[in-house]
Amino acid sequence: MSEARGLAASLARFVLVGLANTGVGFAVIAGLQLGLGADPRLANAVGYGAGFLLGFSLNRRFVFAEASATPWTLARYGLAIAAAFALNQAVLAVMLPVLGAGHFQALASQGAAVACGTLAFFALCRTWVFRASPVVLKPAGR
Predict the structure, then answer these.
(1) Which of 118, 121, 131, 132 would give a disulfide with 84, using CB separation of 3.0 to 4.6 Å?
(2) Beta-carbon neighbour count of residue 78 at 10 Å?
(3) 88, 63 Cβ separation under 8 angstroms
(4) Count of structural domains, the chain
(5) CA atoms of 87 and 12, how far apart (whole Å)
(6) How far apart, in whole angstroms, are the C-alpha atoms of residue 28 and residue 10?
């Protein structure tokens, strides 16, 4: 039962980090796209880039409790980001012509792309990036 609680806590922390990272990325996307009139694909790429180091640090320390990271951990994280970004861009490419190119339609396309990319990234982090050092939670007071 303790192992299940540890997994649930890890998943909850990952969701919190993902929400924070997604929020920051989406704010950058919206600011660039709506505020500066940037192309949706460029705004999306910059939003992804803005969250890279923040997400790595929070996932490594807060979610998976790694005291230090190896170059391989960072490389796997980068590859997972790249794969999630590729999926994100594919969804965006499909959704933009479906929903239209107006500002709010494009933001709806961005939302679909962000959701798909975030789910893929969660799966990759859980099964591949940080798998070498799973979280072991100790009960309080012991």
Answers:
(1) 121
(2) 13
(3) no
(4) 1
(5) 24
(6) 27
Q: Which residues of the chain have pLDDT under 50?
A: 133-137
134 located within any domain: no
State the CB neighbour count (10 A cutoff) for residue 140: 5
| pTM, rounded to two decimals | 0.66
Q: What is the pLDDT of residues 53-83, one digit of tens each?
A: 788 889 988 887 766 678 888 899 999 989 9
**Cα dihedral 20, 86, 67, 14 sign:** positive
| Domain, as residue range, for 49 | 2-129
User: Is the residue at 135 inside a domain?
Assistant: no
Which helix or strand (DSSP H or E) is residue 90 part of? helix 71-99
pLDDT at 113: 95
